[in-house]
Amino acid sequence: MKKEPAKKSKGVSYAKWGVIFILPFFLIYFVCHFIPQVLTIYNSFFENYREGLTQVGPKFIGVQNYVKLFTPSSEGTIDILKYTGNTLLLWILGAVPQVLVALLLAVFFTSYRLKIKGQRFFKTVIYMPNLIMASAFSMLFFTLFSNVGPVNQILIAMGVADKPIDFFAYTITVRSMICIMNFLMWFGNTTILLMAGIMGIDQNMFEAANIDGATSTQTFFRVTLPLLKPILVYTVMTAMIGGLQMFDVPQILTKGNGMPNRTSTTLIMYLNNYLGTSKNFGMSGAISVYIFIITGIISIFVYRSLTSED
Fold first, then answer.
1. What angle do CA 281, 285, 289 make, to 5 degrees?
2. Average pLDDT, rounded, for the chain
3. 85-99 per-position pLDDT tens digit
4. For the purposes of burial, counting CB atoms within 10 Å of the CB of 258, is it exposed (0-12), middle (13-18) or buried (19 or more)?
5. Among 289, 227, 245, residue whose Cα is nearest residue 43
6. Cis-peptide, bond into residue 164, ω within 30° of zero
7. What is d(CA 138, CA 126) in angstroms, rounded to the nearest whole number?
8. Which of 277, 247, 283 is nearest to 265 (CA)?
9. Are 139 and 252 in contact (CB under 8 A)?
10. What does DSSP assign to residue 78?
């Protein structure tokens, strides 16, 4: 008597569903990111701009846009390098205090020894500045430090100044305002991320360090900081990329002029000058490619610096 072949049990294959769920991301990335990136690189090799009502180009000119980008101006300065220095300086002065203060606050609020109550309240208060639009922040600071603003009125009333101080005429004050605004807007978001990273560390590690007699400083540098490194690297990298794309705060605060003497003009503001009036897609494409390369180089340097021990 022949035995009937055993029927194979039908199971559910979840592998295809993983592909289906991630497919929309790749489609959106390809259409909204990859294709524009390729077109940007392509346009950087063409002369393509508007002069009044006349459209010039598109005409293939090779690397002439890049040559023009690094050609000294009538003042003898290379604008793209000057604006790169401005952008990096504004990012460093805003991001370094942001990460340090956020790290201290994250350690303070998640300390197993202090056991601070009301963490949800403090998280909300710290994160609230991040909800304010950059344009509103810029207008607020512009109003506060204008010649007829409250800051000047207070200084005159206290006898510190005899007449209104033009804060926007000095490089140090304009840059300081930009850095303070970026710090206030983003330190809360960084604090929340670092707090989440610290709370994800096994508490047994802290208890073991406490039993071994480690001080708070030793626990921070030997336990918290090494285990927090992945989140710390992420926050520094995102802050760096956001800093290189800084635009809205200095644009609104300085009315797009980068005053004084273009010392607060960033790379994206420089890019916007070509896109705003002349619609110069060739030069704007070259600047975009330059920003992309600079971002990649600095990202590799920062990543390797923070993960050198690994």
1. 175
2. 86
3. 999 999 999 888 999
4. buried
5. 289
6. no
7. 19
8. 247
9. yes
10. -
